[in-house]
Structures are given as C-alpha cells and as structure tokens.
Amino acid sequence: MTAADLMRAVVPVFPPSESNLIREGYLTGERSPGELRCAPSEFFMLFDVNNDGLISFKEYIFFVTLLSIPESSFSVAFKMFDIDNSGEIDEEEFKKVMALMRAHNRQGAVHKDGLRTGFKVSGCVENGGLVDYFFGSDGTKRLQYDSFMQFMTNLQDEILRLEFAHYDYKSRGTLLAKDFALSMVASADFGHLDKLLGRVEELDKDMHLRDMQITFEEFNNFAELRKQLRPFSLALFSFGKVNGLLTKEDFQRAASQVCNIPLSDNVVDIIFHVFDINRDGHLCSKEFVRVLHRRERDIAHPTGTGIMGLLSCFFSRSPDSFERLVS
Fold it and tell me: Which part of the chain is the EF-hand domain (predicted)?
C-alpha cells in the first residue's frame, strides 16, 4: 500500500468534498467520478527497503501497532522496550515487546503470525524496513531514547500531514470548511452520523462558512487539542455545570487556558456549526467530546484492555516479572 493508504487504514476519513466521490469503493462497471490522491511521503519511504515506493504488509502491521500508542505514553513505551534498563533498545528487545504489543492490538492480533486472509506474508513480521532503520541491516545498532521519541513524534505528525493532504484535494495548502468538518465527524457512531453529516452539508448554505479556508496550522492545533481531550472535556463539562451554556468565547478560553492551544475563530465557528445541535449559539459538549473520544479510541484499535492496558500492566509489574512476560 501507499503511505496515503496506510493513513486511510488507520484514520477514519470521508472522501474529500471536491472529489465528487461519495465512497471509496465501486461496483464492477460503475463509473468512478473521481479518485483519491495524496502527495508521496518521504518519511515512510525511509523504510522502503526494496525501493518499490510501497509499504509492505509486514510494515503496515508494525506501523499500526506503533500508532496505537498515545503520544503521552511514548516514554512508557520506551521503558517497556528497554527490558534490561540499559537506556537503550537492542533488536531482540524491540522484537519481543512488539510481538507482545501486537497481541493487544486488534489488527495486529488478527495477523499475529504474518497471515492475512488468503495471503501469507513472506518472512517474519518482525523483520522489515523499520527494524533495519532502527538497528541496521546486521542488527547491531542500538536505539537511543531521543531517537525513539523523535521517530514516534514524526510518525504521528506524518499521519496528520497525510490526512490534511487527503482533504486538500486541489492542493491549495488549505481545507474548505466542509472538509475540516468531515474530518471531525468521520469518527461519529452510526446513530449520530446522519444528523452530523446533515449539519456538514448545510455549510454550503452559509455565506460566511462556505468559502472559509482552514490552514494546516489550524488543523494541527485542533489535532493537538484532541491529544488533551481529557483535561479539555473536564473543563467543558465543569463550565457547563456551573454556567449552563457554553459560548464560542468559553470554548476558546478553555482550549487556551487549560491546554495552552490557540483555536482560531474560523475553527470554532465550524465546530459550533456542526455541534450546536439546537442552533441556539451554544455547543453540545457531550456530542462533541463523544466524537473526538471515539476517534482516539478507534485509532488505538484495542482488544480487551488494549495497548493502554498493557502499558498499565508494565507499571504494575516488577522488571523481572515483565521480562518473563515477554520472554
């Protein structure tokens, strides 16, 4: 698959509004009115060992597993990998813990033996371009803490960039308000999706919002807010209980003061258009938080307690018992 395919496999997305696509798949003989296109990813090509410009299925499983780790837990993940507490990770430590983490990831667990329905991956899932990148082709390099943290940050940033490029169908460097709204509601559950999509469609009727453009910086700031959803949602609900109604100014102040994230007037206008269910100028905090929480949960692909359960398990065990767990 391409890097854009990987993003679409991990992040719930709708076809961009200007593509004229209503879905990604088509029946045999059905006319396809457009196609999805996305700029190539230099980042993912660092792991393209056979130079075919594609991500192999083995590498896909690796990336999906790593992407299920929240940014707030990167440091915990490194300590999990560093079984002997040396401050570095060697190839064998990395492979052992990756295998364990894959078992706690929905897609990884399904393909834990390198098998895919009707298809068997050649070679071990633990061997691939990512392992070579970290440890060298001979496996003798060791991975330092700073290098791991930077890689994990770069991986998350690249997925976000690809998501933005997906919706930036005409490569303007900005998103239409409608596409930004689609990116927000793509994770909504089916019971609420129709209502939210109806609100997105109504953007075309609003003269102020219809031609509004969202920059990557604004898109990125909103993504940063999702990472701090717990304190932000607590601020929203607490304010709502005290004051009853939540205005745009209240929303921006909560993002700025609680999460230190600036949200532009344009972004807030679009959020309130979609999630002001009663159209009274006040946000439906519960619906907004539910959609954002669902997105973060779905990207983690949990099985049982999921990756976060495994990370919690790490802290509840002694180093010796955790080493027995991965051995």
Answer: 69-104, 263-298
> How many whole angstroms separate alpha carbon 227 and alpha carbon 70?
8
**DSSP per residue, 176-203:** EHHHHHHHHHTT--HHHHHHHHHHHHGG
User: For the residues of 250-296, what is the DSSP string, one character each?
Assistant: HHHHHHHHHH-----HHHHHHHHHHH-TT-SSS--HHHHHHHHHHHH
Residue type, 287: E
Q: For tokens 């607490």, name the residue.
A: 238
- Around 60, how many Cα atoms within 13 Å sit in the side-chain half-sphere? 21
Considering only CA atoms, which of 313, 298, 290 is closest in space to residue 79?
A: 313
* Phi, psi (degrees; rounded to nearest 5) at 105: -115, 135
pLDDT tens-digit readout, 29-76: 544 444 556 667 888 887 776 677 788 777 787 788 888 877 777 788
Quote the pTM value.
Answer: 0.80
